[in-house]
Amino acid sequence: MGQTPQVPEPAPAPAPPPPPNRVYVSFSAEINANTTESLIATIANCVNQGKAEIYLMISTPGGSVMHGLNIYNVLRAFPVKLVTHNVGNVDSIGNAIFLAGEERYACPPLDVHVSRSRVRLQWAIPVRGKGLQREIRGDPC
Fold first, then answer.
1. 118-138 in b/e burial notation, b at 16+ Cβ within 10 A?
2. Is the pLDDT of residue 26 over 60?
């Protein structure tokens, strides 16, 4: 009698790729002491959970320059890839937070407002970034 031909078993489906190691954080608020501490705590929690990428969606009317600079410095210090998205208005000191991102995106229509500030520096600060190579000097504005 004839043998039944053996049909090879199908190969198992490959395992699905792991979910992206990223998190999305929304910041829609004025920049002040409370919102600064809240945002920093949220980002720190994400970093402590091992997230590699943080997408910060930002819309802010600005606020305290001191707190905005604090947010910028802390965001730049975290060991993660930070991507910032302007999802509305990013005004005044909010621009500094937006610029903290390694990658930056904006949703149309884009609204950016920069307040005029006066700064008198007693030293020179080198500023380097993508497409930016200049030095801020301590000259009055």
1. eeeeeeeeeeeeeeeeeeeee
2. yes
